[in-house]
Every structure is written in C-alpha cells, then in structure tokens.
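Notebook B, p. 112. Complex prediction, attempt 2.
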Amino acid sequence: MDALIDQLKGEIIEQLNLEDVKKEDIDNDAALFGEGLGLDSIDALELIVLLEKNYGIKIANPADGKKIFQSIRTMAEFIKANKK
Amino acid sequence: MAVNDAVSYTNIETEAVDFLKLAYKHYQLAYPKFFKMDSLCKLAFIASELLLKENKITDKYKSEDIAIIIANSASSLEVDTVHQSTISDKSNYFPSPAVFVYTLPNILIGEIAIKNSIKGENSFFIFDKFDADFMSSYINSLLDSKKAQCCITGWVDLYKNKYEAFLYTVEKQPAELNIEHTTEQLNKLYK
Amino acid sequence: MALLIFTIKQKGPKLNKFIILNLQHTTYITADNIISPLGFTSSENFEKLKKMQTGVQRFENSALSREPFSAAIIDSQKINSEFQKLNPKQEYTRLEKLVILSIQNALKQNSNIDIVSKKTLFILSTTKGNIDLLDATQASKFDKKRVYLWETASLIANYFSNPNKPLIVSNACISGVLAIILGKRLLENDQYDTIIVTGVDILTEFVVSGFQSFKAISTQICKPYDASRDGISLGEGCGTIVLTNNRQLATNIQQLIAVKGGASSNDANHISGPSRTGDGLLLAIEKTLKESNVKPSEVDYISGHGTATLFNDEMESLAITDANLASTPMNSLKSYFGHTLGAAGIIESIIGIHSMQENTLIGTYNFSELGVSKSINIIKETQQATIDTCLKTAAGFGGCNAAVLFQKESAE
C-alpha cells in the first residue's frame, strides 16, 4: 500500500503539473480538492484519465470521482480493489 | 523610443518551455496555476503580469470597464498539436482535459481575467501578422463609445518555438505616458 | 524572444469622431443562411424547427469516436453535390465548402450586395477551422498551411473576389455572437456599408475526443434546461448573416430587423467551469440592454445558450433571473443543431430573426421538466406570439459571455 501511495503521489504531481509540490507535502489523508492541494474540476477529470492510463480502470460517471478522489489513501484503496 | 517603463527580458534559453519557466522564476511570479497553463497562456500570463505591475489599471478602473482584446497568427495550434498526438494512436488513446481546455486561443484572456479579476469586453482575433491598423482603430472606437475605459491589448503568438508577446494598455487618460495610440506608433513599437 | 510591455495613450478624441457618433447608423440584417443537417437554407431549417424536428442523433461506432455520442452531422455527399453545382476551379476543404455555399446562398437573396466592393467586409467566426488537417494519419491533398485560420479566411475572400482582408474571431462558444457585435460596431463607422458574418465549425475527432475527456457529451439527444439533462450534443454547421448600415441596400426584406446592441464580458472565475453566480453573463446582458435602450420587460424572447450541461444551464437561470428576465419566453436550439461552437451564435441568431419575422416561438426540443434552480420560462411547444425584441446570449470556455439584441424596425 505504501509503495502504491508513493507511486501515486509522483504520478499526480506529474500529471497535474504540480510543479511546486513535493511528494512529502502531500498528506495521505488530506483532502485533494478544495483546501488541501487546491485541485479543481479539470484536475478531477485528469485524475480519471490517470486511472485509466496507468491502471486500466475506467470511470464512466465523473460524479463517482468525488468519493474516490477524497484523499491519496482513498484513491490508492480504490486502485488496489479495482486494478486489472 | 519614448516609452516609459518598457520592460524586456531575454534569456539564452531558446526553447519556449524553458524560456517561459525561467522568466517566471526570474520575475518571482508566485502563481501555482502557471504550471498548469499551456505555453501560449504562460507567455501571455508573464507579459500581462509585467505590464500590470507597471500600470496598475485594476486600481484605477472598475473590473467591468477593462477590456482584454488580443490577437495572434497561430491561434492555439501549439497545444492543438499536443491534443492531436493524444488521439492519433488508437492503441494509446488518452485525450487529456487539461490539454484540450487550452485548444482555444481566448483561454489566455480568461487566465489574465482570472488573475486580475477583470470582467470587461473580451475578444480574440486572428491575423496573418500584427494588424496595427485594425487594433488601434477598433480599440479607439471601444473607448470612444465608452464600452471600456481601458484595454489590455496586443499580440501573443507561439508556435513551433517561435514566440512573441507584445502587450500594452490603452487608456483615454493615462497617468504619465504619452505615446499616441495610432497605427504608426504601434508599428514603430512592434518593430 | 522578448516580451515587450507598454502603456499607450489613446489618441485624443477629435471633433470628427463626435460627428460620427451623432450620425450613428442603424445596422440591419439583409440576408442570411443556415447549413445544418436540417437543410441548406435558413427557411428549410426554420420550417423543420417549427415542426420540432431535430438534426441531432445518436452515433455508435462512428469514425469520430469509439464511444457512443450524440451529434448533428451534415451529409458529406450532400455538401459535395451542392458544391459541385458552383463549378469550383480548385479544391476546397469540407469546412471551406460550407462557408462558400452559405455565403453564396445569402448573396442570392439580395442583388444589392456588392461582394467585390471595398465597402464590403467578410468576418469569419470559428473555433477550430480546418483542424482536421492536423491529423497526420489521414492522407490529405491540402497544404498544411490551411490549418491557419487566416489562410482559410483569405481563401474564402478570394473565392468571392472581395478586396478586403477578412477579420477572424476565435473566441470559443461566444465567437458567433461576438462576430455579429463586431460587425455592428464596424458599420457604425463609415468604412464599410456591408458586412458578411459567417460562423462555421465542423465535427472532428479532435473536438469529439476533447469534449469526451471532459465527460461533457450526452449519449442521447441533449436536453437543455431539463431536470434529466446530462451533457451536450455536438454539431456542425454554418451560418451567414449579412449586415448593412444602408437601408437602401436592404429593400429585399419586408420586416427589417436591426441589431440594437451587444456586449461581452468575462467571469474571471474559471477557464472551463461556468460562473457559479451568473454574474458575468448578467453583466453582458445589462450592457446590451443599456446600449439598446431596452428595458427587460420589453424583451419578448430570449434565445439562450442552453448547452444542457448541469452547470451551464444552471448559471444561465441565475443570470436571466437577476436580469429580471425570468418570465420572458426562452429556448435553447442545441437539441436541434447540437453545439456548433463557432457557428452557434450565428445560426441561433438567424433562427431568432426568423422567429421575429414569423412571430413564432420555437419550442425547446426534448425539454419536459425544468431542472434549474430558478423558475425561468422555457418554451415547450412551438407557438405564435408577437416578437418585436429578441435577446441572444452565449457563454463559453475561458469564462467568456456575450449578448446581442435584435429588434424589429417597426418597434424601434
């Protein structure tokens, strides 16, 4: 799980162009949207692309993203449960 | 050239991406959204930050009285090419919303508007080359008919590592500067 | 490799400018054309809308996308056969053919229009132009230079032997409305007496894939303002409006319509998401009504943007309500034409103009139950009503908004 979380942080920083953010800045349980990393609606859609591209997981309904993308940990758990 | 507060920055980096990043760092423009922008928006953003640092129009005018009217030649072709590359290979087909959103040239107007809370008239025009005649006469008529009090305008073009930003503000009564907004003056400055 | 930054003073207002302002001309619409899956003339399109027939359908296994999507697509064979009738001397792209056909049809309606005159200007409104030429996997007989919008516009101007350098507006989904406003503003000076405004965009894999990545396309015909709306239908089309400031040139029209005012604005909020308050669109509407000298209560009909995304339609309902227009009959034409991007503002304005001329409010196809937070007055069924004044609104990526107001000459 820790390895996945670490990998995911790197992928998110790269995919979302979070140039000034380092892996250690991202709290595993902090909110990705709103306060936390300050991600927006385009980032949410970009995370959907990331899941499909890197893990082969398709999310048809973007509304499902809300739950999955709560934090790095919820995202990693979702990947672990659904990875093909 | 009788221009007050002209700012120019050149750097040995010639790749657009590197040039823009270095310029951002050089001017200490702390704005994390910068890194999400495509190169065209980055170029426009840096130019607008430098311009509005020199001339604080947002202190002088109401947000709805400031227009942003910009033109270029290549539209958003630079990032269009990136988006096209994400869909050309059917076995590696991952169009990116963060790329696609920039495939419209007027997004750079949106970025400047968001950063500075500017809400006035918007227009993005395409010309084969900078058209001082049209830009000066159209913007003068906007100010004359009071559709705007001030206009951020100019030329922001970037494609295949050729890039230039020529940005200026036009006001009826600027505080201290005195270049007349005419076709001749613009052509002189643009050279 | 340099950034040049200046502040420039506007040339001091001279007396002759005041004279021009006092003599401000009225801008009239003297000819128009729509090309869509519903027909190749404005009247063909309007007749279909009166009967509430849509040009949008669901596509599966299309060359444009592996996923199902809804869109309004024009039959290529029909475009080619219509175009061959013009005996073209060189090859034109699909997009250029649409523009030439559209202008040609508009010109036929008024023999007073002098297309080769120095006083006639062509304005092109498009978001992506010949973007299909960017796809290197498709063999193409066309020079890559054709992806430059100015190259496309100049080919069109040359086709019609128009001597002026065309103007091009590329401002996302408000391009069409902006181009009409620009035409009106240019006609208020004396440089031109006729302006041909054409909006066009074609459906490409480029655009479909992009909107799909935004999860914005409905797999069914879109449902503007409806409680069960779930995204847009895309479309392709072309619309042409010929504007003139010389009433003598517009003798072909019985019921003249004037362009009274128009404005644009920016939300200054987000590059893709609509404003949560509608304040940007409200600003464009208020500026437009003020310039037109029209009170909200005098607006008889609003042609909305109505893309059928959750956030856009909600935003519009807020702006329309804050502008005191909530009770004014309003529709969206996106469920007939799809979202035709750079053509939308022009095609929808033309339908608005014909609605005024025929005193007919077009029902919003696929609308059954209001699904926005404010109770705006969405037209369900096509019906007769006196329409003297029509407001057309648009909003787009980049946070931009625009509005334009049309009025019958008799009601001025």
